[in-house]
Amino acid sequence: MPILDIKDLKKGYADPEGVRSLVVDVPAFSVDAGQQVALRGSSGCGKTTFLNLVAGILQADSGVITIDGEILTGRSESVRDKLRARHMGYVFQTFNLLQGYTALENVLLGMMFGKGADTERAKALLERVGLAERMHYRPRALSVGQQQRVAVARALANHPKLVLADEPTGNLDHHHADTALRLIREICSENGAALLLVSHDPKILDQFDTHFDFADINRRVRESAQ
């Protein structure tokens, strides 16, 4: 059974005049347990919307998303939040760290939505990403690369079976981008988590054995290009 299985997924938005445009139209897509998959797509093609649908942050208009055998679509926001906390980790491009809390506290707060805070695991993850000496620093006192490492640790905190990464290297220079990608992939492998990453950078995408253009799976993008 795939860790992620999608059937007939659709999501659209209405413009100011009330005309609804389809953004995501994915007939079928899946990711196996432990698999690492990358999606290529230009800005505005709908790939972030797609990830947010998979995460349950957005509600689909129609279709079915199944995460580790549990149906995500059609559920209430609170249920989707619980399913995300139980099954998924998310590395956002902008990191989404809480500025008033330390690196350790950011990871611990992420755990509160799952099985509860585990200080020893949080510390171990921050040590694993090279922040043993900075776990009590607030984000503003960390470099961009270090903030990204906190975001990676937080995403892995609840033992997710699927990690989503939205342009996770977009705010980093070339050197730090390579380091961050290697770290994300290594930690996912160590934890047995599948990885679904989206990016527009060919240098990032070419490092994946399995990668697709978003247009390959999103019928809306494919038809717009014709």
Description of the structure:
By secondary structure, the protein is of the alpha/beta class. It has one domain (35-58, 68-209): P-loop containing nucleotide triphosphate hydrolases (Rossmann fold, 3-Layer(aba) Sandwich), CATH 3.40.50.300. Helix content is 38%, strand content 24%. It contains 9 helices and 9 strands. Strand 7 (162-166), helix 6 and strand 8 (194-199) form a beta-alpha-beta unit. Helix 3 (103-111) crosses helix 4 (119-128), helix 3 runs parallel beside helix 5 and helix 4 crosses helix 5 (144-156). The radius of gyration is 17 Å and the shape is globular. It starts with a strand and ends with a helix. The mean pLDDT is 90.
Distance between the ends? 34 Å
Shape: globular
Number of strands: 9
Unreliable residue runs = none
Query: How is the biggest beta sheet arranged?
Result: 5 strands, parallel
Could you name the CATH homologous superfamily?
Answer: P-loop containing nucleotide triphosphate hydrolases
Secondary-structure-based class equals: alpha/beta
- What is the CATH T-level topology? Rossmann fold
User: How large, in whole angstroms, is the Cα Rg?
Assistant: 17 Å
Succession of helices and strands: EEEHEEHEHHHEHEHEHH
What's the number of helices?
9
In CATH's first tier, which class applies?
Answer: Alpha Beta
The CATH architecture name reads 3-Layer(aba) Sandwich
* Overall helicity: 25-40%
**How much β-strand is present in the residues?**
15-25%
Count of the domains: 1
